[in-house]
């Protein structure tokens, strides 16, 4: 009879985890706080605080359920601070003869664990059942497709799960209500305020430990307000459904100079670490449509993000790694500008998105995609620099979801697997969707000159630079038509404007260094 060590990772905090199923009575459950995981990129201190607090609360819940626990704290003098080594140390210490673990969120760890399968102490790797699909399901769906598209994958998931389906037909008569979901805020000033979560002694100690161990990392722990228990996460879910869901759709693409959350759910971190299941979140939204009359464009738009995009990026990640991480089809070579770490820039839209990130370890999707992401795309920032940044600064960041979004959706570095065209935009788009420009020293209406919005010249410069790769894309024909009709003088002036701006950008100075100096090998 085997005595397993059941290793539960920091983003697997749920009792229905496959690792915990059918646990023999003498099994030991292990949770490990290790510095290697907090430092391989310099994670935001809120993110580290979230993991520490949620892991410690979950450990108590496991104890209450009668599990025998082995918990390695950051301060434990015997802690090896490497996840794999620590699990093996604990297994040996407790006389276990195998280690069981559910698929982690990063290929790097999966590979390290797979390589240990033949070691003296065998590792048993289990599939993660907390998603709607497994990597094998996605590989089946991908088979034979040269141009996979999220939309078709999503429709199949709707049919498979029955979510928002009425017989064989989609609820509301359409699969997609995106055309109703593009309104700017236009003077709206009142938004739902997030619940304030009580911090008990466990949470306070975890947050203090995060701040003490990682003082050089981004963020100030004093304004931490993420849910760290299932109960707190459920309270955020109820709040979103009651207060924000109805307006989620129409303002999904809007950006505010003042408000970080708008009508977004801020449920990603809770879902990603296991406090909420994606199925219960989708079902809560669906109930709100059938029982409370929530608008279909909002409910469908929300479910699409989780059942569609979230599953799709995970499928791409696991079927395309490890090669995916090395992709750089637009040959981008620039270092990340230093202001990504301190928000010191006079581009108002960038300053606000970055400052909100520093304050909350959160920015909503359009800030990530159309502000900080778009800027990096236009400047030609190299994928590994931008990916490390997104992985470090957001509380919800895990490589399975961050990488396809950054490398694929934002940088178009995968040649179009994630998106059929790059999401590049000029200042005109940002001006239409936000109230930033009225407060900026630059003008979104000017293309060249000292007050011209840098996004404008960078936009055309990006298109010109990448013409060979992009101009035959049917969705970009129109814009390349406009570029090609410009006079040579105008194109020269734009090029000079953009190049002079790019020359003035200061590359980051070592903020991302921990991963390189610590010998973290990019896979
Ligand atoms: P809402 O706007 O309320 O959306 C509801 C849910 O849908 C989210 O909680 C999330 O689970 C899911 N979702 C929405 N869009 C996406 C998407 N494109 N991919 C996957 N799931 C999605 N999301 C992460 O969870 N972790 C990341 O590390 C991450 N990195 C990103 C990096 C970039 C460059 C971009 C453009 C997007 C990234 N996203 C990431 C996706 C998305 O921006 C966040 O999920 C979302 O902003 C989280 O806020 P929310 O919970 O308020 O989302
Ligand atoms: Fe951003 Fe340009 Fe608008 Fe300034 S003018 S806020 S830089 S888009």
From TrEMBL:
- UniProt xrefs under InterPro entries: Crypto/Photolyase_FAD-like_sf, PhrB-like, Rossmann-like_a/b/a_fold, UV-DNA_repair_photolyase
Protein's name in the database: Cryptochrome/photolyase family protein
Species source reads Vreelandella malpeensis
The organism that produces this protein has a lineage beginning with: Bacteria, Pseudomonadati, Pseudomonadota, Gammaproteobacteria, Oceanospirillales
């Amino acid at each position: 009879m085997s005595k397993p060590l059941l290793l539960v990772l920091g983003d697997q905090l749920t009792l229905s985890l496959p690792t915990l199923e059918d646990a023999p009575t003498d099994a030991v459950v292990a949770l490990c706080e290790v510095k290697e995981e907090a430092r391989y990129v310099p994670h935001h201190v809120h993110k580290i605080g979230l993991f520490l607090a949620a892991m410690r609360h979950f450990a108590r819940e496991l104890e209450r359920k009668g599990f025998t626990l082995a918990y390695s704290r950051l301060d434990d003098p015997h802690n090896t601070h490497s996840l794999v080594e620590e699990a093996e140390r604990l297994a040996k210490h407790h006389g276990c003869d195998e280690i069981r673990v559910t698929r982690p969120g990063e290929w790097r760890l999966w590979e390290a664990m797979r390589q240990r399968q033949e070691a003296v102490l065998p590792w048993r790797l289990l599939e993660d059942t907390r998603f709607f699909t497994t990597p094998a399901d996605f590989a089946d769906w991908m088979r034979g497709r040269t141009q996979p598209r999220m939309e078709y994958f999503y429709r199949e998931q709707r049919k498979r799960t029955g979510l928002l389906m009425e017989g064989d037909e989609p609820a509301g008569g359409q699969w997609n209500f995106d055309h109703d979901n593009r309104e700017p805020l236009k003077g709206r000033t009142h938004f739902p305020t997030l619940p304030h979560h009580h911090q008990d002694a466990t949470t306070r100690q975890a947050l203090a430990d995060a701040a003490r161990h990682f003082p050089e990392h981004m963020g100030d722990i004093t304004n931490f307000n993420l849910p760290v228990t299932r109960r707190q996460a459920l309270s955020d879910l109820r709040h979103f459904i009651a207060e924000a869901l109805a307006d989620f759709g129409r303002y999904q693409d809007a950006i505010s100079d003042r408000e970080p959350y708008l009508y977004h759910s801020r449920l990603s971190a809770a879902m990603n670490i296991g406090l909420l299941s994606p199925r219960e979140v989708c079902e809560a939204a669906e109930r709100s449509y059938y029982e409370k009359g929530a608008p279909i464009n909002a409910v469908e738009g929300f479910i699409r993000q989780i059942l569609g995009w979230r599953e799709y990026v995970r499928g791409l990640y696991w079927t395309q790694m490890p090669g995916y991480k090395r992709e750089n089809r637009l040959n981008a070579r620039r270092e990340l500008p230093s202001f990504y770490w301190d928000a010191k820039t006079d581009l108002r839209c960038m300053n606000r998105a970055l400052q909100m990130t520093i304050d909350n370890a959160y920015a909503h999707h359009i800030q990530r995609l159309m502000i900080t992401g778009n800027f990096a795309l236009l400047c030609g920032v190299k994928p590994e620099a931008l990916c490390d940044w997104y992985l470090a600064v957001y509380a919800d960041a895990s490589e399975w979801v961050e990488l396809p979004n950054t490398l694929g959706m934002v940088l178009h570095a995968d040649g179009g697997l994630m998106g059929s065209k790059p999401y590049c935009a000029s200042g005109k788009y940002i001006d239409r969707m936000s109230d930033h420009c009225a407060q900026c020293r630059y003008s979104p209406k000017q293309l060249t000159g000292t007050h011209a919005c840098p996004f404008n010249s960078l936009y055309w410069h990006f298109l010109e630079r990448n013409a060979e790769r992009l101009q035959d894309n049917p969705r970009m024909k129109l814009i390349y038509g406009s570029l090609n009709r410009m006079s040579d003088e105008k194109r020269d002036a734009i090029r000079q404007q953009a190049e002079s701006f790019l020359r003035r950008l200061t590359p980051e100075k070592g903020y991302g260094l921990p991963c390189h100096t610590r010998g973290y090998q990019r896979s």
